[in-house]
């Protein structure tokens, strides 16, 4: 078994109208990116707005098809998966998005939201599902009665705790998160990040974590890829990228982190 769970190979994505003879004439959002994510580790992807991070993550989630290149999980091109294999992929790789409110059905209770993946995948019976949801709510630090509340009755931080719970309820192998804490206040952001990291370690999950915030990326990542204009300009172990950045752009990003000396001392 390879030590890489996810491999992104020479992936590009061009958006926009296809012109004469279906020649792509749009924006190249991602341009020839090659990255690997080791089992049980977190790859952080950092870059400014528009650098292609979300597009890359969505391709790894099989939500957007690459214009060229492949994304592999366990050595299999995810676009070749069909039927039961595709369903297994959907269980194995879970997303967490920036704004969970938009991916929760407002009419469903938190209990219904969390039990749905178990029902879809035919896991357990009514009682065991409910017990699983209750245990997970406790694990993510929410009160027992949250099970009967609705998303609009929860704070932003609580909603992201639910998003984390939903992402792990099927015991996936990987969690792919796109700016999961960016909409939160700084203090809440730190708590949710800690929770994400704790649960990921407890469950031995592999992760990709996308953020424009280098301090956030530093906190959760084993490896870091720095993206700019659709390309990866720097990629390596987090300590090395942070401690000895090679690319000018990475140096600029690090210099822009407020209190980065304090951050370095705290690490
Ligand atoms: N569906 C789409 N159609 C056309 N262009 C798109 C689409 N999605 C993204 N783009 C463009 O692709 C480029 C990369 O966008 P992307 O959202 O991947 O970057 P990002 O680094 O995640 O930025 P942000 O943090 O602002 O989301 C941008 O120029 C964006 O306008």
Automatic annotation (TrEMBL):
<feature type="domain" description="ABC transporter">
    <location>
        <begin position="6"/>
        <end position="254"/>
    </location>
</feature>
<dbReference type="GO" id="GO:0055085">
    <property type="term" value="P:transmembrane transport"/>
</dbReference>
<dbReference type="GO" id="GO:0005524">
    <property type="term" value="F:ATP binding"/>
</dbReference>
<dbReference type="GO" id="GO:0005886">
    <property type="term" value="C:plasma membrane"/>
</dbReference>
<dbReference type="Pfam" id="PF00005">
    <property type="entry name" value="ABC_tran"/>
</dbReference>
<keyword id="KW-0067">ATP-binding</keyword>
<comment type="similarity">
    <text>Belongs to the ABC transporter superfamily.</text>
</comment>
<dbReference type="InterPro" id="IPR003593">
    <property type="entry name" value="AAA+_ATPase"/>
</dbReference>
<dbReference type="GO" id="GO:0015833">
    <property type="term" value="P:peptide transport"/>
</dbReference>
<dbReference type="GO" id="GO:0016887">
    <property type="term" value="F:ATP hydrolysis activity"/>
</dbReference>
<dbReference type="InterPro" id="IPR003439">
    <property type="entry name" value="ABC_transporter-like_ATP-bd"/>
</dbReference>
<dbReference type="InterPro" id="IPR013563">
    <property type="entry name" value="Oligopep_ABC_C"/>
</dbReference>
<protein>
    <submittedName>
        <fullName>ABC transporter ATP-binding protein</fullName>
    </submittedName>
</protein>
<keyword id="KW-0813">Transport</keyword>
<dbReference type="Pfam" id="PF08352">
    <property type="entry name" value="oligo_HPY"/>
</dbReference>
<keyword id="KW-0547">Nucleotide-binding</keyword>
<dbReference type="InterPro" id="IPR050319">
    <property type="entry name" value="ABC_transp_ATP-bind"/>
</dbReference>
<dbReference type="InterPro" id="IPR027417">
    <property type="entry name" value="P-loop_NTPase"/>
</dbReference>
<dbReference type="InterPro" id="IPR017871">
    <property type="entry name" value="ABC_transporter-like_CS"/>
</dbReference>
